[in-house]
UniProtKB/TrEMBL annotation:
GO terms for biological process: amino acid transport. It comes from Methylobacterium frigidaeris. Belongs to the leucine-binding protein family. This is Leucine-binding protein domain-containing protein. Residues 1-28 form the signal peptide. Keywords: Amino-acid transport, Signal, Transport. It comes from the Bacteria. Residues 35-371 form the Leucine-binding protein domain.
């Protein structure tokens, strides 16, 4: 081959190699694009405990992660599911098909969460749930595409229910919200009551976002149960407690057990009404230096309001997901969730958290008592820590949930 031809061939090969290298460098430098959608109640009975505050938490997670990882392009969407499974399902299908959403976050209201739970599995996306409580999510209906952060009905029953029975509340009557969460909470608390030698005398169910609870309270008072268990949440819990005080439940010798009470509920009730309530939470803003520092940052962005455990769970779950995406250099749900299970989460909000095979995230839970007005030292100083429930005791044992993903 002539020398001139060899030179031309060499130059062509060099140019091709340079082009390939430039293309590889451009691809390596291109941002990792992720879209996450916060789906919750934005104007109804669960808007204070989740709502806009959960969007703020997700945006904080995106900003905090991007500050250390500028090659990530993270978009946060949000929508109101109106506490309707069909509305929530429609939003998620549109998010995935049109907006290429990778992860659905929060999703309070268990009926909606269970609908979304099926869609993300069908379409091979992820849900990191912080807002819903039904323990079925990691039980018989468990999915490889759902991670359940923060709390569930089993943990609430084990915490508040167990504490009430041990303190003498051995007969119960339930006022229960008539949907998946309320029924699951009543069931799980009933099992704890009966396992500890107590007895359930009856229950009554009310529609979500009811306004008048008088007939339900009259039935509960007529049962003469020592404990009236409120298997509801949000404004339902707030209004039941308020009307219970008006009906003189405490004066009649009965105790109200708020089985799911959030910091936002206590804020709405005020300490004069809420004082003495025993409750179980996964997070409290004033628990330690780490929770205080993050919560003050949150409050600056959310009208001075301190975060609920649901909002803290949105942040923690999203951060653990983002770290797993970085570690695997992939958005593939199977690879990412495998990494989330392999490496425990460590953050100032929940401490050490582990993702189990059934999707349940385990971390300590806390039993609190609401302070008297005279004990509070300032705004949002509402809780006194009664006890810490270790992670290995706080949630249902792995083998007890009948999750098909768990090897027997």
């Amino acid at each position: 081959m002539p020398t001139s031809t060899l030179r031309r061939t060499s130059r062509a090969l060099a140019l091709a190699a340079a082009s390939l290298l430039a293309l590889a460098q451009a691809q390596a430098a291109s941002p990792i694009r992720l879209t996450l959608g916060v789906l919750n109640d934005r104007a109804g009975p669960y808007s204070d405990l989740a709502g806009e505050g959960s969007v703020v938490a997700a945006e904080m997670a995106a900003a905090d992660f991007k500050a250390q990882n500028p090659d990530f392009d993270i978009r946060v969407l949000s929508a109101d599911h109106q506490n309707k499974p069909d509305v929530g399902a429609g939003i998620v299908r549109q998010w995935i098909d049109r907006d290429d959403v990778d992860v659905v976050l929060d999703v309070p209201f268990s009926s909606v969460a269970l609908a979304v739970h099926q869609i993300v599995r069908e379409k091979n996306r992820l849900m990191i749930n912080s807002g819903a409580g039904a323990s079925e999510i990691t039980g018989a209906l468990c999915s490889p595409n759902t991670i359940h952060w923060t709390y569930d009905t089993w943990a609430l029953a084990n915490g508040t229910g167990g504490a009430m029975v041990r303190s003498g509340g051995d007969t119960w009557f339930f006022i229960t919200a008539d949907y998946a969460f309320g029924k699951a909470l009543e069931r799980d608390v009933s099992e704890v009551v009966e396992r500890n030698g107590g007895k359930v005398l009856g229950s009554v169910r009310h529609p979500v976002a009811a306004t008048d609870y008088s007939s339900f309270l009259i039935q509960a008072q007529g049962s003469r149960a020592k404990v009236i268990g409120l298997a509801n949440a949000g404004s339902d819990t707030i209004n039941t407690i308020k009307q219970g005080a008006e009906f003189g439940v405490a004066e009649g010798g009965q105790r109200l057990a708020g089985l799911l009470v959030f910091l936002s509920d206590v804020h709405s009730l005020g300490l004069k009404v809420a004082q003495g309530l025993v409750l179980t939470e996964a997070f409290y803003w004033d628990l330690n230096d780490g929770t205080r520092a993050w919560s003050r940052r949150f409050a600056e962005r959310h009208k001075g309001r301190m975060p609920t455990m649901v909002q803290a769970g949105v942040y923690a779950g999203m951060m653990h997901y983002l770290k797993a995406v970085k570690a695997t250099a992939s958005k593939d749900p199977a690879k990412v969730t495998a990494e989330m299970r392999r490496v425990p989460a460590e953050d100032p909000l929940f401490g050490r958290s582990e993702v189990r095979a059934d999707g349940r995230v385990t971390h300590p839970m806390y039993l609190f008592e609401v302070k008297k007005p005279s004990e509070s030292k300032g705004p949002w100083d509402y809780y006194r820590l009664v006890s810490t429930i270790p992670a290995d005791q706080a949630f249902r044992p792995l083998q007890a949930g009948n999750c098909p993903l768990v090897t027997k």
